[in-house]
Task: structure prediction
Amino acid sequence: MIFNNKLDDLKNGLKQLPGVGEKTAQRYALYLLNQNKENSLNLADTIREAVESHTFCEVCNMLSDSNPCVICRNKERDHSILCVVENTYDVYLIENTGDFHGYYFVLGHLLSPMDGIGTSEIHLPELLNRVKSEIITEVVLALNPSAEGETTIELIASELAPYRKTITRLSTGLPFGGNIEYSSPTTLSNAIKRRYSISE
Ligand SMILES: [Zn+2]
Result:
C-alpha cells in the first residue's frame, strides 16, 4: 500500500544498498525521518559531497577523491609488482593487511560473458598497456576463487603470457566459491604471502 510517496522513495533508495531488503529499508527510512532532523540532513550532505568528489583514478581505476589516486601518486611503493583486483573495496582489504606495497589495477568486474561483461568491461586493454609500459616484473591476480574469478584469472594469465612477467595468484587459503571480502584479515594476509606462480 502506497500511502506516503516520500517515505517510499527513501525506502526504495535504501533498498539499492547491498544486503538491505524491504524490511530493513523500511526501518532505516523511518529511523532517518524519526531522528533529529539535523543528523539526517548532515548525512544527506555527507553522501552528496562524497559522491560528487569521487571519481575513478585514470591509472588504476579505483574510486578515489583524487585523480590519480593517493596510491598511484605515492612514488615510494614497489614499482615492480602490480596487484589486479575486482573492485575498490578489495584494495582497502589488501591495504589493511599491511602486507602489500606495490600498485593496484582495479578491473571493476569479473568476466561474465552471459551478463555482457567482456574484456573491455574489465579494462583488459588498459591492463595490458600498463603491464607493457612499466617496470613490472610480477602481476598478482588477487581475484575471488569463484567460477567468474577463475575464468578471469585464466584469460588474464593467457593475455599476459607474451609479456614474460611472473604471474601469481593468491594461495588456496581462500575457499573455492568464497569471496575475499568475507575472509579474515589473517586469511587474506596469508593468501598474499603464500601466493604462487601460474606463469610458465
Ligand atoms: Zn590509482
User: Anything to note?
Assistant: The longest strand covers residues 81-85. The radius of gyration is 20 Å. The longest helix spans residues 37-53. The mean pLDDT is 91.
